[in-house]
Design a protein that fits this description.
Residues 1-37 are annotated as: Disordered. This is GmrSD restriction endonucleases N-terminal domain-containing protein. 50% of the residues lie in helices and 9% in strands. The chain has helices at residues 55-63, 81-92, 116-127, 129-132, 156-164, 178-188, 197-204, 207-217, 220-226, 236-258, 261-273, 280-301, 321-331, 336-356, 358-363, 371-384; strands spanning 14-17, 20-25, 48-54, 67-68, 100-104, 110-114, 166-172. The chain is elongated. The two termini are 23 Å apart.
Amino acid sequence: MTTSDIQEPPKITEEHFLDTGTGIEAETEDDGASPEIARPWNPEQIRVNTKQFSLRNALDMIEDDSLELAPDFQRGRVWKLVQKSRLIESVLLQIPLPAFYFAEDTDGYMRVVDGLQRLSTIHDFVRGGDEQGFALKGLEYLQNTVEGKRFEDLPAPWKRRIFNTQIVTHVIDPTTPPDVMYDIFKRINTGGTPLNAQEIRHCMSKDRSRTILRSMTSTAEFDAATNGMGGHIRMNDREMALRFAAFWLMGTDGYAKYAAMDPLLQRTTGMLDDANEVDDARVNALMSAFRKAMVNARLVFGDHAFRKWPLTSSWRNPINRALFETWSITLAKYDAEDLDGRKSEIVARARTLMTRDYRYLEAITSSTGDVRRVLYRFETTAKAAEAGK
């Protein structure tokens, strides 16, 4: 092999959150790529009603489960103590809060979509008790009045001021189609630290799909294959499991139908939420295939599973989503005994692809949702998995 045989690999960039690497490679878009969403909605399908609640009403709805704060949603609770305290100070100063967005389902239950951090903070302060409650710290205007106090330490007039605070809430009607609703969420998701795509899907989804994805990413097999990615603070672990479920349930033909990752994953979430579409037996089969894929990925690639690993480098790069979906789906079809005897040949073939095949590198690096690139990386990965036969 000569130097001329080797392509200059694209620069690998890791996603960051709160100035810390997430362990996931950032996906990029080609400048000339067509937008993933190119479908104008009928304005009559968008139904958003504006309502007004007192904070007492909102907190009571949270307590009786008619308003959901997206359980196990870690991203929504990462504010530092001073940030939380100054939000409470704003309420005490009667400074109007920005509008909230809720999504209502057909049973009348609502989920917080935009404003989750603010409402979680207020709920923790007022109803959190010793476990999640906190004392105010770092106030700007009321440091001589309520600094260091918990909610139960506040004088009654201050408590009433919090309870009586009115919030403006835009409630998205359940008759709004899911894809339209998802696009609305993406458009309004601008305040604070914006939610990523999987966090939005989590807010929109029901408990069944959440439980399935959490179960998939809580397995020892997943943690071993991804070097401890389970419980990811930006829910990238859930997105990877969802991508596996999407291609396992619908295949590349299903992807070609939607021609974009967002609608495919949104559709898959809906399928997992509906036991009539994916029953418990099918879920068990999905879980079994996922565990098998994780065991096989660890067996073949070791610490480099689902990461770019060109012949020119032994560095362990961040996990690449496109590699995850293609190799996990591919390896789920093989027995460990078969792969164990061929793993060196498979690794060599895979590393060669990531070194010499620029079309393959493009397919796992930029505009990864492009149908042609999705099909190419699946086809090429399937051939690489046959190495040594």
